[in-house]
Amino acid sequence: MTTLVVDVAVNAPVRTLYSYRVPEALAESVQVGVRVQAPFGRRSIVGVVVRRYQGDGTDLKELKSCLDDVPLLDAELLRLLHWASDYYYYPLGQVIKNALPGGLMRAANRTAIVTEKQYRRINPEKFPEGKRQQQILAWIDEQGGAGATQIRTEFPSPTPVLKRLVEMGCLELCEKERLRDPFLFEPLPPDTALILNDSQRQSLEQMSERIGACRFQPFLLHGVTGSGKTEVYLRAVAECLKQGRQALILVPEISLTPQLVSRFRARFEPLGEQIATLHSGLSAGERYDAWRSIARHQVNIVIGARSAVFAPLPKPGLIIVDEEHDGSYKQGEGFRYHARDLALVRGQQQQCPVILGSATPSLATYYRCKQGSCTLLSLPERVHAGAMPTVELVDLRTEPLRGLLAEPLIEAIASVLEQRRQVLLLLNRRGFAPYLLCTDCGTSFHCPNCEITLTYHQRQRRLICHYCDYLDRVPELCPACRGERIVPQGAGTERLEEDLAELFPAARIARMDRDTTRTKGSHQRIVRGMMEDQVDILVGTQMIAKGHDFPNVALVGVLGTDSLLNLPDFRSAERSFSLLTQVAGRAGRAVGGGRVFIQTYHPEHFALTCAAAQDVEAFYQQELPFRQELGYPPCGHLVNLIFSGNNGDQVSNAATSLGRHLQSAAGDVEILGPSPCPLTRLRGKYRYQILLKSPARPPLRRLLAMIAGVTAELPRQVSIHIDIDPLDMF
Ligand code: ADP
Ligand code: ZN
Predict the structure, then answer these.
(1) How far apart are CA 424 and CA 335, in angstroms?
(2) Which of 66, 366, 405, 441 could make an SS bond with 481 (beta carbons 3.0 to 4.6 A apart)?
(3) Distance of CA 395 to the CA centre of its chain
């Protein structure tokens, strides 16, 4: 007997879809893209309907309930998710779980839809006498109904008037769904009218042509910070809206770039456009509401972090990936997707241009341009105060350190402070010192879960693991020799802060790193302190290199450069170059004439000399041949297989055995390992890896397909994670 059947992608680590019979009562509401609750073994599980058809339902279990009133995913988005599931070897149900706002695939019940009492105009022929009554009534009518809180933002103490209007039959109170709006009560910043300069105009023209044609085309918008990229984004989005399509803007971390959101609001809200944001700083309810308002076509502009690449825009006409080089676009665990790469796939599937913007494009994107599959557009100059900063490499072999700083940097700080301008100091390590050492017996202190030393945090008087957050007290005596001489080794941002306070007792010093920005609003407070000149020196990790525009910074100093360069990763030169170029770009933004000092023992390293010259092209021309020679991305493809488990021998055996299988079928694929991961123990798990390297993708995919067949033979206690296009090899 045929009946209504659906295929459901469930939230479980399984690669198959499950079919269910749809009971009569749910036939209407169960559409493709809604969440349902379904029996699964002896439990019940949440899944998303991905297919709906008439079929034989005899042996099938019945769905329990439907959890959404509108489909959360449309056919186009499902196509993207299918693609991602296939490409990243990750189960569709769990891909969907990552795409949807947090928690939706876990909770069995609906994420609460909130309602509020709304006043609505009725009986339009009835008019009140009072002036204030008329004003309020007209306003509510204009809004198409409004809640009491909203009315109160316009009219003080409106309650008696509202009550009267209800009695008179001009208003009625009804229950209406309210979408939680994180911008409610935030003032709208002013917009500035600008005339584009020549390079902005030329870039925009090329984009507009493609936006108008509704055709896929990747663009790299390459311009230093302050060259006017954001202005080009704003114009391109306006073009896209003109086509009746929606725009999606991805940023690395939205909480770090509130200025970007403000500028979009300032430009588009006065035109009646709503802007939705999607990021981890929102409450679960806010995210669910943002998602639904996008899915209902109520929003034309979406700004969000990584997972917003899955925002349910029905017809995107433009996708922008700002700071496309940023590593946070790649998810490091579980579903290890890269949002920039998926943005390109989405642009291709839905036929719209994709703009990748950066001052320091990734080598991958640069390579695409060279190969002709991406159009390079340049904004070569800063809009204001043209001059780029001068960068000096401080050779620590000849300039000894006084504490953490070399003399030339100390002098430069002193002179900048005298001019009442600001200093930025980058040290990409938080805490006071990377480890403690007993100088009597040489004991150092390690995390019991991870193979790494515990970082000493002086403020909290704690030893902390930066990988698993393990906490320990600082020992008074060495547990091995009872010695008392336990000394912090190396330097972190806390120590730098302390050194500076000694050197410049009058200076006002602030610190920006994960420790000082944990609480909501704390990051913004530091930014405001800088903007309002309440801070003379800002110390921080790579966070200070991102996004902000501090006009009064005249000097940037970089410490600990060599530990960046020496990370055991083939991308360490690219990352160092990018970070240094970005942070150097923070100097002298408004007035020009900024200075940058980079302290290093390797002043001849090309990543440093190129960053000093702010010469992106020169860097790529030296870096690319290395990659070519070794077959590393972007000149080859990588897959990392990570084995982990509680028992080290089991993990190593599993890796060895799978490695043997792979060797026998390798073909053109180079198989490196198995070898212990650089962090052999992490969060209590032992870890091994096998790196697959190939000039082309198809042979890699053939090998991966084989793995699925072999994993069944491995012990259950060992899990394998497949990382396609890995970014981080730790
Ligand atoms: P980016 O995004 O590359 O850092 P922005 O778009 O933020 O650059 O521009 C930097 C500053 O220059 C902003 O304050 C912006 O308002 C201003 N600006 C941008 N384009 C122009 C222009 N064509 N004329 C005048 N000011 C501009
Ligand atoms: Zn740890």
Answers:
(1) 36
(2) 441
(3) 35
Q: What's the rounded mean pLDDT across residues 364-387?
A: 88
Ligand 1 centroid, distance to 397 Cα (angstroms): 40
Flag whether pLDDT at 109 surpasses 60. Answer: no
| Architecture (CATH level 2) of domain 3-99 | 3-Layer(aba) Sandwich (3.40)
Q: Where are the domains of the chain?
A: 3-99, 115-177, 198-383, 386-431+491-629, 637-724
Indicate if ligand 1 lies below 6 Å from the C-beta of 680: no
Q: Which numbered atom of ligand 1 lies nearest the CA of 322?
A: 2
Q: Amino acid identity, residue 61?
A: K
User: Residue 66: helix, strand or coil by DSSP?
Assistant: strand
Neighbours of 578 (CB within 10 A): 27
Backbone angles phi, psi at 616, to 5 degrees: -65, -45
For 391-400, what is each residue's pLDDT tens digit? 999 999 999 8
* Half-sphere exposure for 154 (CA within 13 Å, toward CB): 14
**Per DSSP, what are the bridge partners of residue 681?**
686
DSSP 8-state class, residue 154: H
8-state DSSP, 603: T
**Residue 116, beta-bridge partner list:** 176
Q: Which of 269, 266, 264, 267 minimizes the C-alpha distance to 250?
A: 264
Do 579 and 545 touch, CB atoms closer than 8 A? Answer: yes
Residue 91, ligand 1, Cβ within 6 A:
no
CATH topology of domain 115-177: Arc Repressor Mutant, subunit A (1.10.10)
- Strand-pairing partners, residue 317, are none
- Number of Cβ within 10 Å of residue 532's Cβ equals 9
Q: Which helix (H) or strand (E) holds 597?
A: strand 595-600
Measure CA 526 to chain center: 21
| Domain 637-724 grouped into CATH 3.30.70.600 | yes
Rounded to 5°, the CA angle 659-682-661 comes to: 5
Rg (CA), the chain: 29
In the block, which residue shows the tokens 């700071």?
323
CA pseudo-torsion sign 617, 619, 620, 621: positive
What percent of the chain lies above the pLDDT cut of 90?
Answer: 62
For the chain, the distance separating the N- and C-terminal CA atoms, rounded to the nearest angstrom, is 54
Beta strands 553-559 and 422-427, pairing class: parallel
Q: How far is the CA of 197 from the centre of ligand 1 (A)?
A: 10
Looking at the domain 198-383, which fold is it?
Answer: Rossmann fold (3.40.50)
Give the ligand with the smallest distance to the CA of 224.
Answer: 1
CA distance 593 to 600: 23
Position 709 pLDDT exceeds 80: no
Query: Tens digit of pLDDT for each residue in 602-634?
Result: 999 999 999 999 899 999 999 999 999 999 999
Is pLDDT at 327 greater than 50 in this prediction? yes
Q: Does the pLDDT at position 185 exceed 60?
A: no
Among residues 83, 351, 77, 159, the alpha carbon closest in space to that of 240 is found at 351
For residue 122, give Cα distances in angstroms to 129, 168, 171, 177, 648. 16, 10, 5, 19, 72
Cβ of 590 closer than 6 Å to ligand 1, yes or no, is no
Q: Write the pLDDT tens digit of every residue in 227-254.
A: 899 999 999 999 999 999 999 999 998 7
Two tokens, residue 502: 């000694």
Contact predicate 317/216, CB 8 Å: no
Q: What spacing in Å lies between the alpha carbon of 383 and ligand 2's midpoint?
A: 46
385 — alpha (psi -120 to 50), left (phi > 0) or beta?
left
Architecture of domain 386-431+491-629: 3-Layer(aba) Sandwich (3.40)
Is 11 close to ligand 1, i.e. is its CB under 6 Å away? no
The whole-model pTM stands at: 0.87
Helices (H), 558-716: 561-565, 572-584, 606-612, 616-630, 648-665, 697-710
> What single letter denotes the amino acid at residue 363?
L
What's the confidence (pLDDT) of residue 224? Answer: 83
